[in-house]
Structure prediction request, 207 residues.
Amino acid sequence: MISISAALAGFFLGASLIIAIGAQNAFILRQGLLRSHVFILCLICAVSDAALIAAGVAGLGTLVAHSPTLLLVVTLGGAIFLGSYAVIAFRRALRPGAMQAGSPQVMGLKAAVATCLTFTFLNPHVYLDMVVLIGSLSAAYSGTDRIAYGLGAAAASFVWFFGLGYGARLLQPIFSKPAAWRVLDVIIGVVMGLLAISLAVHFLEVS
Prediction:
């Protein structure tokens, strides 16, 4: 029988790691406001987290923790990508537009999926949090309890990303004005820029 307490422990740990201002959440928020490819992007984020959590619970966390080269490559790639996206966000802030159908700000599906995957897998913290941390803490459980723990953590990702993506439309009245988009893009640019700098500094310190 699936342990409810183990599932809840996994759920709350997963939620605490996911609910934070970060590149992936900022991207999903923006796409949700635009009502652009929301379902597929939320699904990609949630399924990706679930796959990483499953790998961690299955024991991959130990391998990742002892693979500094992998984390270095991901860190450098993430710094470059986040820095580039920060520049794009600041450029958008200089030319904001009200949200409307057919807006040039809306990404095509392929570009949106590629960007979403990049935000997900070029973030070294996702490996440390979803694979190493959740994986190592799952060792406190065994059998079906361990499975329940992993399922609970994965469920938190589904609840959060779909809630964020579809809940963003509640803010649409505010984002009917170009000034609101300017503020959002400046915030996104700052978040992405700071994350890029932190990853670059970490890369220089450990390389």
In short: Residues 4-206 form one domain. The mean pLDDT is 84.
